[in-house]
Design goal:
The protein is an alpha/beta fold and 474 residues long. It has 17 helices and 18 strands. 42% of the residues are buried. About 4% of the residues have low confidence.
């Protein structure tokens, strides 16, 4: 049976490790993982060696775990694995393993696993765990997160003044009855039964903040149409102070989903992706100047539909920096459009893995290296890398200048109903925790709770404080 060997410190088992483990088991039958002892790892040992060993042992991909307490060379020479696997980022560096494997005819290979990855380990866990909501107790202990402080931070939401700027979207869910296959051509025939609209995009970001008790100003551009009327009435009901600029040359963005038996048959988008004109940009700048002196946080909620062209973003950033206002950004990329790194000097950016890779043009590096590349390019203080069913990778600034830590929160809701809007709810609640005086680890935790609540229901519905309290206390 073929053996493959991976070594490291493994302070935190993050998704990049899971990818590497899974890839290793596709190559060989037996995966052996070497964990460097506290003595050997030195200052890179942030977690006690026994805890690190137990963490790796608990992974279903790993067949054998050993503590490396002498030298890596001696361990490899004794094991003589058929393959030694290292991350892609080490490929152009000096690797001491290369000389050793040549001596006994082994192979040194480099990979970060697959870019697209569905973790069988997490799937196995979700099947075994009957709870729909799983709180990350180890994460809470690592970062000394206390329930009493979280409650105080959330209660402080009512003191915040928030400005949200970005693309509004109206989401329409059309429930259909499937009649069958057309006799004329291979097309499914349906009859619409019910239609329900929700506020989405930057609109739901503003709505979450208002529903959680904050004073919210929202700036966006709408078309002169029926969806503009729906938007104005709905956001008024949600207590959002809307600053709506109208452009009759473009529609209010509408996304329709045709659904049968809880399955999406078709999505139709009605939108323009061209940048808004200079006149509208100047109007937005004037609005920002009037609002900024009474603002704690500026939220950029960008869907790349034209509301936030680069020149406008740069001007708003200058205004916010001049007034020492916290800035948070999310920029969603539906195709090859979008670059989250154009939002410079943010306190926090929240891209998906795909959006991060598009921004730095890197489809190979592991997640931690990817996050660091994006941090350098954007000059962001903190990065939340959203990785779908694998949860969240937190790349965070420390009190020591030019030092960053990485940790992971798994997906908390293991049986999502509708994933739309998860990132929006995470971003705004995390931003509000930071502005309330919380640290980045507390922000990531509350943001993950908000996302888990959101994906547990169909459509974008504004969050309530009591929902968050219910899960903090569970």
């Amino acid at each position: 049976m073929k053996k493959i060997f991976i070594s490291g410190n493994f302070n935190i088992l993050h998704p990049g490790h899971l990818r590497l483990f899974r890839y290793a088991k596709e190559i060989a039958d037996i995966l052996i993982v070497g964990v460097f002892s506290d003595k050997l790892a030195g200052k890179n040992s942030l977690v006690n060696e026994n805890l690190r060993l137990e963490s790796v042992k608990s992974n279903s991909y790993v067949n054998q775990v050993l503590l490396i307490d002498q030298t890596l060379e001696k361990s490899i020479s004794k094991l003589k694995p058929n393959y030694i696997l290292k991350g892609k980022e080490y490929e152009n560096s000096y690797n001491i393993e290369e000389t050793i494997v040549k001596e006994y005819g082994g192979n040194l290979i480099f990979s970060s696993g697959e870019v697209v990855f569905s973790s069988l380990y997490l799937l196995k866990y979700s099947l075994e765990n009957k709870l729909n909501f799983n709180l990350p107790q180890e994460y809470l202990l690592r970062h000394f997160i206390e329930t009493e402080k979280l409650i105080k931070l959330v209660n402080n939401f009512s003191n915040l003044k928030i400005l949200v700027i970005g693309d509004l979207i109206v989401d329409e869910y059309i429930t259909c009855d499937a009649l069958g296959m057309s006799q004329e051509d291979p097309t499914i025939v349906v009859t619409p039964i019910e239609s329900k609209k929700f506020i989405g995009g930057a609109g739901i970001v503003a709505s979450h903040a208002a529903s959680l008790g904050s004073n919210v100003n929202f700036i966006t551009v709408l078309g002169d149409d029926i969806n503009k009327d729906f938007t104005e009435k709905t956001l008024l009901k949600y207590n959002v102070n809307g600053n709506f600029l109208v452009d009759d040359t473009r529609p209010t963005t509408l996304k329709q989903r045709f659904i049968t038996n809880n399955k999406t048959l078709l999505r139709v988008s009605h939108l323009h992706q061209t940048a808004i004109n200079l006149k509208l940009q100047k109007e937005i700048i004037n609005l920002v100047k009037n609002i900024i002196t009474n603002t704690d946080i500026v939220i950029f909620s960008d869907f790349n539909y034209g509301c936030l062209p680069k020149s406008l973003v740069d001007n708003i950033i200058k205004i916010a920096k001049k007034n020492s206002v916290m800035m948070i950004a999310d920029s969603q990329s539906s195709s090859q459009l979008g670059d989250i790194s154009r939002f410079k000097n943010m306190n926090l950016i929240t891209p998906t893995e795909r959006e991060a890779r598009l921004s730095v043009r890197d489809n190979e590096s592991g997640l931690v290296i990817l996050a660091e590349k994006l941090r350098k390019k954007s000059n962001a203080n903190n990065i939340f890398l959203k990785i779908g069913e694998e949860g969240l990778l937190v790349h965070a600034e420390t009190s020591n200048n030019n030092s960053w830590l990485t940790d992971r929160i798994p997906a908390l809701n293991l049986q999502p109903v509708d994933v739309a809007g998860a990132g929006d709810s995470m971003m705004i609640t995390s931003a509000m925790i930071l502005s309330s005086g919380g640290n980045i680890w507390e922000a990531a935790y509350i943001g993950s709770i908000a996302a888990a609540i959101q994906v547990g229901r169909v459509g974008n519905i504004p969050l309530k404080v009591q929902e968050i309290f219910d899960h903090i206390n569970s």
